[in-house]
Amino acid sequence: MSAALLHRLKPAVSAAAIRLWSCKPPLIEPTSAAFIHRQPASARLYSGLMASGAPLFRQLFESESSTYTYLLADADTKEAVLIDPVLETVDRDLKLINELGLTLKVALNTHCHADHITGTGLLKKKVFGLKSAISKHSGATADIQLSEGDRVTFGKHFLTVRETPGHTDGCLTYVTDDERMAFTGDALLIRGCGRTDFQQGSPHRLYESVHKQIFSLPGHCFLYPAHDYKGQTVTTVDEEKLFNPRLTKTLDEFVNIMNNLNLPKPKKIDISVPANLVCGLHDI
């Protein structure tokens, strides 16, 4: 590439970099579906280039159960939390945590999973002083039994607990202190939601949980689910309010949909649930 061409390109590249690295959060206040379709780049900014002062963030994937694990850390203190670790990917997660120089403080589960064994027990064996956390309504053991309004701190940041039962009676959503990100577990998926036909599931409770506890977050809040089966990684409150094919229905319509899914049982349910009930122990 010639020096003259490089000189011509330099101003445009610099201007683009300045726009991308702006510390201002994306302002997403859609009034229509067309508005959202016009804003794909800004709507995804927070998941790619984090705002100044925001926590370090990594989204990790386990392919057998299509489970997402989320790592968040304070960039200054290096204290970290891990959401929904999976047994088979514990070594991968610890490798990344060590590479980034982080200290893992708490391993959280959004609920007692039926499709995989949590990595929390193995992590407690490998990480001295690590605390486990799960809903007090889950029936599972853990160092920290969480309920509505509790905070899980890491450095100067924290996650606020919102109870979102319905998929199970112990489902939690974790919301960052700036309300830009929420980790919804199986309560709300991208253009979907968790099933409600086992583990004390209830379509009525799930509908209420999502509308009161998740859809009440700011419209630009990024929503990160526990699973996705179509290669999607993130959505927003506003997107799901407009496009979720189940949760945009009336309560009666939603209940009818959920009661007629006729899904097979998760393949690992008979192994996963008993193991996950002791996720706060070392006995995996």
Write structural notes for this entry.
The chain is an alpha/beta fold. It has a six-stranded mixed beta sheet with strand order 1-2-3-4-5-6, covered by helices on one side. The termini are far apart. It is built from nine helices and twelve strands. The protein is globular and about 50 Å long.
Number of helices: 9
- The end-to-end span amounts to 57 Å
What letter string, H or E per element, gives the SSE order? HHHEEEHEHEEEEEEHEEHHH
Strand-pairing-aware structural class: alpha/beta
Q: What sort of overall outline do the alpha carbons produce when their principal axes are compared?
A: globular
CA radius of gyration is: 20 Å
For the residues shown, what is the average pLDDT? Answer: 83
Percent of residues in helices: 25-40%
Low-confidence stretches: 1-49
Largest sheet: 6 strands, mixed
Please state roughly what percent of the residues sit in beta strands, choosing from under 5%, 5-15%, 15-25%, 25-35%, 35-45% or over 45%.
Answer: 15-25%
Total strand segments: 12
* Spatial strand sequence of the major β-sheet: 1-2-3-4-5-6
